[in-house]
Amino acid sequence: MTFYSINFLLFFLAATALVQLSKTPKTQRRVFLLANAVFYAYWDVRFLLLLLGVIWVCYVCARLFESSGKPAFLYGGVAACLALLGFCKYYNFFISSFARAFGLGSVGTLNIILPLGISFYLFQAMSYLLDVKKGAITAERDFVKLAAYISFFPQITSGPIVKAHDFLPQLDRLHRVRKDNVYLGVTRFVTGLTKKVVLADRIGVAVNAVFAAPAAYNGLSIAMAVIGYSLQIYCDFSGYSDMAIGIATVWDFDLGRNFNMPYLAENPSDFWRRWHISLSSWFRDYVYIPLGGSRRGRFRTYVNLLVTMLLSGLWHGANATFLVWGAYHGLGCVAHRMLGRRGGQKKPWQTALCTAANCLFVSLGWVIFRAESVGKAMEIFRGLFRGTGICYVNVFTVVYGGMIALTHLYARFRRNANAPEEALKLDTFRGKLLLSVWIFLILGLMYCGNSAFIYANF
User: What is the extent of the structural domain holding 22?
Assistant: First the structure.
């Protein structure tokens, strides 16, 4: 069920009532787990057993490590998670690639249904095991508590990926649905809903048309589609994150921040500190730093950056385009390390120039990310210089792009990524009236076609 459906509203209201009626943290953890199970089973009850199996493996491996002191149990749990992810997501890709490389023809690929949110909940499961290994937390004795964390429904579909040491302690206290949290959560949710159904989905119609047949359009149309997709994926993904964070906020949970004005980044490294922050920090803490980070000399730092970004690209999907996209950003981060300005404060025009150049870098990267193949991406790049063809400048891309730019600049001026929604004070009559008008405008401007969240595919 999607966050903006009647079914979800009824489900969430019923679950919220149970949360509020619970008298102890232990009872609430059972309510959270029940809500998680119902939400996940609504998609496909068969894969609920797989999710519970992953949780059980993590629970047992951590307990065995604690009792024996042997890290092999934790590494075994991590290996099991990686093996499951590799089979579900990458088996067909690697088998087909191997067959093509050695001219073996058709091989036995499998019709594998990708379980909902598997990339996200497996990363949370591995976070738990690795945090236990580092000593950041102790092995959890309460199975329900661990299960409530790994399967937490607001973010299981598309994140944020919350680390175990940040989330598990929140399950030790009693959660109450308070007015301030409801106001903040509702505002954040409506912000995300606007990004998704009004901005992303409207822009996506034009983007899909151009990317489906790039040979039919001229360079200006393709350039607008490239810009449009940069806006679409930001609004779509940050919109989901805002809705997930808003839902969790109503229940008095803190999922952190997943986006921080990413298109104001001045370089590729800065972009990844602002975009999908939960995934970036996961790879930083559990891949980049364990590889040695920047502590083992320049060359090793460059290798670590490339490896981390390649794995990040591969995490997004089983396609050569994601590997190329990961390498593209990895090389961008390496280039920034090698050539970046050291010390000193930039002048305003220098900041603006760096921001514009980085936006161009990121936008061209999104072409590789979205394309069905590297060849299709090259076709779009060549089309940028075509003078003939259909001229299609979508009004939604222009208008909504301007709105997004102004919102970014306003938040930059206020030095607060959440400044626009925090300006709406729901404890006043004026704030409630503005929210009512806002929701009415969403209903009038939303795209009513079928449009799934982009990151639900990963």
Answer: 6-176
For 197-208, what is the mean pLDDT? 93
Contact 363, 226 (CB under 8 A): yes
- CB of 190 closer than 8 Å to CB of 442: yes
| Burial class (CB within 10 angstroms; exposed 0-12, middle 13-18, buried 19+) of 256 | middle
* Radius of gyration, CA atoms only, the chain: 23
285 within a domain of the structure (yes/no): no
Mean pLDDT across the stretch 183-189? Answer: 92
Q: With b meaning 16 or more CB within 10 Å and e meaning fewer, what string describes 210-244?
A: bbeebeebbbebbbbbbbbbbbbbbbbbbbbbbbb
Give yes or no for a contact between 58 and 122, defined as CB atoms under 8 angstroms apart: no
Look at the chain and report how many structural domains it folds into: 2
Determine, yes or no, domain membership for 56: yes
Q: Are residues 191 and 170 in the same domain?
A: no
**Domain annotation covers residue 275:** no
Cα torsion for 144, 192, 367, 356, to the nearest 10°? -120
pLDDT in tens, 353-380: 999 999 999 999 999 999 999 999 999 9
The rounded distance, in Å, linking the Cα atoms of 37 and 22 is 18
The chain-wide mean pLDDT, for the chain, equals: 89
CB burial of residue 125 (10 Å; 0-12, 13-18, 19+): buried
Q: How far apart are CA 207 and CA 211, in angstroms?
A: 6
- Are both 196 and 152 inside the same structural domain? no
Distance separating alpha carbons of residues 196 and 235, to the nearest angstrom: 6
pLDDT tens digit string along 20-32?
999 999 999 999 9
| Options 316, 329, 336, 408, the catalytic residue | 316
Q: Clarify whether 316 is annotated catalytic.
A: yes
Tell which of 145, 176, 207 closes a domain: 176
Same domain, 135 and 168: yes
At residue 342, φ and ψ (nearest 5 deg) are: -105, 120
Confidence of residue 108 (pLDDT cuts 50, 70, 90): low
Same domain, 37 and 67: yes
Same structural domain, 214 and 85: no
The model's pTM is 0.91
